[in-house]
Design a protein that fits this description.
heterodimer, A: 112 residues, mainly beta, 4-stranded antiparallel β-sheet, globular, B: 112 residues, 5-stranded antiparallel β-sheet
């Protein structure tokens, strides 16, 4: 089955620790995205990548980092510089930039 | 950049009624308008989309209409059912060029 997966579903970390969220897809899509979702805020773009070894900052990139070493993988690191990291994080992919994005199930990160 | 506004933020209907959610966008160059449904604790799922070369698209009980002149588009759900209860997001973009810009979402509650 083709799809996009995120792991883990729930993640708990102490303040000051970096944490990496996994995103994998086997749809052979070129573009991948990371969004942050907070109650009442909709979906805000953190980073996106349209091709391997290249990525661009989205609207709220501060305190986050990404890599795109393989077409199927786009991990997101939430660094200690992110002031308010507790949120629901969504990964998505699409064959063509901005067209028919498919979302993963999300990772809920709680930092205390 | 693109700005998408979505109304209403919450919508309550009785089972069998119709529901309409409206979005406006700011960038007249945008040509792709998807709608996503997000159930509690899950990632958004694409339910219908429309390109700017058509004014309306239907898929069973859901339809989307687009008014390019007024720069607004709407989601119509007929014969609503309790399983339609979810948060719905609209988005806009220029295909192949940029990323999706999302509205802040509408929570639809369908009461039996």
């Amino acid at each position: 089955d083709g799809g996009i997966t995120q792991s883990p579903k729930y993640l708990f970390r102490k303040e000051g620790q970096n944490v990496t969220l996994s995103c994998e897809q086997n749809l052979n899509h070129d573009a991948m995205y990371w969004y942050r979702q907070d109650p009442g805020q909709g979906l805000r773009l953190i980073y996106y990548s349209q091709i391997v070894n290249d990525f661009q900052k989205g609207d709220i990139a501060e305190g986050y980092s990404v890599s795109r070493e393989k077409k199927e993988s786009f991990p997101l690191t939430v660094t200690s510089a992110q002031k308010n990291p507790t949120a629901f994080y969504l990964c998505a992919c699409s064959k063509e930039a901005a067209y028919e994005q498919y979302f993963g199930p999300g990772t809920r990160l709680t930092v205390t | 950049g693109e700005n998408v506004e979505q109304h209403p933020s919450t919508l309550s209907v009785q089972e069998g009624d119709s529901a309409v959610i409206k979005c406006t966008y700011s960038d007249s160059a945008s040509n792709y308008f998807p709608w996503y449904k997000q159930e509690l604790g899950k990632g958004p799922q694409l339910i219908i989309d429309i390109r700017s070369n058509v004014g309306e698209k239907k898929d069973q009980r859901i339809a989307v209409t687009l008014n390019k002149t007024a720069k607004h588009f709407s989601l119509h759900i007929t014969e609503t059912q309790p399983e339609d209860s979810a948060v719905y997001f609209c988005a806009a973009s220029l295909v192949g060029y940029s990323t999706l810009t999302f509205g802040k979402g509408t929570m639809l509650l369908v009461s039996p």
